[in-house]
């Protein structure tokens, strides 16, 4: 099978970067909305629940930022 040309490799890299970026957005939105959903829909406000909400929020932020930089890293291999 022939090696894909430069244009095909660039398009594959751009698609991979787009996927990472979209996953990043989804994780960030989930991280921002999930604490509000738990408050609005009546979960108990115990200290453990507040702690788990905070940790979940921070994990989602960190994962979103990581995925965003993974997308930028994927674009680093573009060829001219």
Automatic annotation (TrEMBL):
Keywords on record: Membrane, Transmembrane, Transmembrane helix
TM segment ranges: 20-43, 55-75
Name of the molecule in the record: Uncharacterized protein
């Amino acid at each position: 099978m022939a090696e894909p040309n430069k244009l095909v490799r660039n398009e594959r890299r751009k698609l991979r970067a787009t996927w990472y970026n979209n996953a990043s957005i989804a994780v960030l939105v989930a991280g921002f909305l999930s604490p509000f959903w738990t408050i609005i829909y009546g979960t108990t406000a115990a200290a453990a629940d507040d702690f788990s909400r905070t940790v979940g929020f921070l994990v989602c932020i960190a994962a979103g930022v990581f995925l965003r930089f993974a997308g930028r890293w994927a674009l680093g291999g573009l060829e001219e």
